[in-house]
Amino acid sequence: MAFGIKRDELNRWKQDVKEEKIAFLTHYWIDERFPGSSTVTKVGCSNLEKLEKWGRQYGLNPEWMDLRGNYPHFDLFGEHQVSIMEAEGMLDQLNKFKKEKA
Q1: What is the pTM of this model?
Q2: Radius of gyration of the chain from Cα atoms?
Q3: What is the rounded CA–CA span in Å between residue 17 and residue 23?
Q4: Cβ atoms < 10 Å from Cβ of 65
Q5: I need a surface site. Which of 7, 18, 25, 98 has the fewest CB within 10 A?
Q6: What is the pLDDT of residues 37-57, one digit of tens each?
Q7: Sheet strand arrangement including 73-76
Q8: Its domain of life (predicted)?
Q9: Per-residue DSSP letters for 24-84?
């Protein structure tokens, strides 16, 4: 279940993915398969070679790409999520959710 984002944020992410940009979208996400994780970051790009190359620099296996639907992406959770978001200068997306919980 995804929640905690605004429609314009989602639409911007979708447009960036379509335009072959490496696009980040973080939102609350609860899934019993991933206990302890309350957020996920979707890193998408419609150019699969570009997305694969981006993921490899962080040790992400191309087989982990979610290719269902029109928005190919990696799902980042936990420590991978934090370290990658920090390296990409995107911690503000994660921190937004920490502030809302406080």
Answers
A1: 0.87
A2: 13
A3: 6
A4: 19
A5: 7
A6: 788 999 999 999 999 999 999
A7: 2-3, 23-29, 39-44, 73-76
A8: Bacteria
A9: EEEEEE--TTSTT--EEEEEE-S-HHHHHHHHHTTT--GGG-B-STT--EEEE-HHHHHHH
| Torsion on CA atoms 52, 57, 10, 92, rounded to nearest 10 | 180
What residue ranges do the domains of the chain occupy?
A: 2-101
Q: What's the CA angle centered on 12, arms 9 and 16, to 5 degrees?
A: 140
| 58 residue type, one letter | Y
Structure tokens at 95: 């921190």
Count the Cβ atoms, other than its own, within 10 Å of residue 50: 13
